[in-house]
Amino acid sequence: MQIKPILSALRKHRLSTILIALEIALACAVLCNACFMISQRVSATHIDSGVDETSLATVQLTGYDSTQAPDVDARALAALRAVPGVQSVSLLNSIPFGSRRGTAGITTDAAGEHFGGVIEFYVGGPGSLQTLGAKLVAGRAPQMDDFHAFTGFMPDEGSVQITQALAEHLWPGADPLGKEFWVLKSHYRVVGVLKSLVRPDPTGWTPEQRQWSVFLPAQPGPYLTGSYLLRASPGDLPRVLRDALAALAKAVPEVVIDRENSHTLGELRHDVFKNDRAMAGMLVGVIAALLLVTSLGIVGLASFWVQQRRRQIGIRRAIGATRSDILHYFQTENFLIVTGGIVLGMVLAFAINLLLMQRYELPRLPLYYLPIGALVLWALGQLAVLGPALRAAAVPPVVATRSV
Amino acid sequence: MFAYYLDLALRSLKRNKALTALMVLAIALGIGASMTTLTVLHVLSGDPLPGKSAQLYYPQIDPQDLKGMMPGKEPPEQLTLVDGLNLLHAARADRQALMAGGSAPIDPGKADMDPFYVETRYTTTGFFPMFDAPFLFGHAWTAADDEAKARDVVIARSLNDKLFGGADSVGRTLRMAGVDWRIVGVLDQWRPNPHFYDLTTGSYAYAEQVFLPLQTMVELRLDRNGSSDCWGNGGGGVGNILPNDDCVWLQFWVQLDTPAKAAAYRDFLVHYSQEQKALGRFQRAPNVRLRNVMQWLDYKMVVPDDVRLQAGLAFGFLLVCLVNTVGLMLAKFMRRAAELGVRRALGASRRALFAQLLIESGVVGLVGGLGGLLLAMLGLWLVRQRPSDYAALAQLDTSMLFTTFALAVCATLLAGLLPAWRACQIAPALQLKSN
Prior knowledge:
The complex is a heterodimer of chains A (404) and B (435). By secondary structure, chain A is of the alpha+beta class.
């Protein structure tokens, strides 16, 4: 197929050619960035929580005075442990994908000069780390004498387990075991490293920060109360949770059961990411509409060109061009225009990505999005032009002999 | 002439239905998508108290110690209790209110209703007149009640409906957080959006159901929501321990009716900071801010990033639709080169031809705008089905209705300019000859 005559024909339709190329370029830029955002959202919803979500549920109690806490906890724990199917129950202040009660800024020196970031403290009673099922990759699990009684926000000191991601952030490349950090005057020492443990509210943070969590052992008391973690076999969990709520209503009738926040971790996870799923859905809708409009534009303009060139097509057919020659002519023409648009679109896609990186902390667009975007647009162009091109190929040679 | 051009435009659009439909569809899709996101953006960045917000200011002062001080750094976004009470008692503004948010369990005292939690606002009496909160029954508590730590509450209409079946409950007792409260007032439906006076409890669709005096809350140590920031010897803020004086956790709003008063109040804040520094309480040089409602919302960037992103995306999409329309319009106008040539040869000026073609694109814009409006309504309905806390706010108002049509017609006229100009460049002789 000769490209030169196509190019010189396009030069006659400079404006229309530029318009289609521009449309393709814009579509390419929006398509690449929208797809990238979708993948970001979808991967966010698949975050590794580091705990046995399928076997865990939480029950939350409120509406009692802190002086009543030991009594309420004792009755509640006894009632929960008596529910058939419950494997273990422990107290934990924050719940992955659930209530957030331990967010604090830390420093890596006692003087408070070196800010380490805002992290989540999972303050848990005995057995809670095992109940969570968080995997220890280095150091040791909490021992019985690590669990201190405390008043206030959380214990003033302690031996803690931190996530790999947080360790790498605070002390890159170094062994985190034995390292220390501070919250104002409170002091903590790292004795163990967890593979991962997600924050309760991962959506509000950058992907890196979503795993900045610490497990801090503590004795239940007036400030670690009413927030229970239940473990049961996955298939049995919904039934166990229902029974647990019913048992609590009987065991501690004077307190308020916070039903809105008492769910299985699977349900909580589903809720946490509902906005991300909605956004991804909307992006898919925009992409579909965009591709539709672009292809309709190509169909419209190509049809116009075919109609305009009927006579010329007839002449070409009369002097020996086959139907497939005509078909290929229009297909090649479309390919050339779309290619021009894609080249421009890639530049535009990166420009938009740069803008988004600055304003919305989006990562850089991976390069492989560009060839995929190009393939999609080439396919779209070919598909859109097929109809008009077939109509062109069907123009009979006799048209050449007619005057109009 | 206009009517004749309109007639010509309609005839020409009818002649080529597929192409016209394509253009209308492209415009409608683009307008529909952008108007949906623009309406959400408009609603979320709206003025919570129109007509009043310019006179309401949020004073900020800097009581922190010297650690981490940097020139030009913003002062904390809330106040300590001691500074809040000092500024409140100084009463230098036309109105002022100190406040914090929280929640408390209510015991309905009925067999058929479980105890439940409500959002509460702990504030001072200036809150109600300053924010134009409408009373259905009764009135606010008095400044004397504030100081006397009275057990008085103002409840919201929804709570009044729930507990008292909508009857006038003034003078009745509310059992909340283990204490008996006297109801002194019932607010009518009132929910400023964004929840500008305290953004720490969520920016949208947040409504307190019980209002009670702040100093009573301090005395009773009721549960507190929202954030607190501490430095130095800061602490507390858990359970029933209040944050201490090295922590900021209160919002303070003032009403200043004239710009001169606002300037004077700013001077007062500087003077107050200097005085506190001389007393040894403050360590930093005076660092004050005095923003009004819209400046404060802007500074706090309350509109969610996702909403801005969607609006940007939708306008990108509208741009694609417009380029598409330009292309199609060009095809349409050029196809009629012969007809236009005849009109030119018969004496129509270029300007007349141009006007005729623009009217044609205007008609496409109007029809596209109508389609866009329907699509925007559908889009907003979809937004309302979504789980975000602002979903219910996504409604089309009259100003956005007009904006839709203005945007559609302007956009299509703009899209029509280039093709119309191009079509007017045709030499009439050439067109006549080729036939």
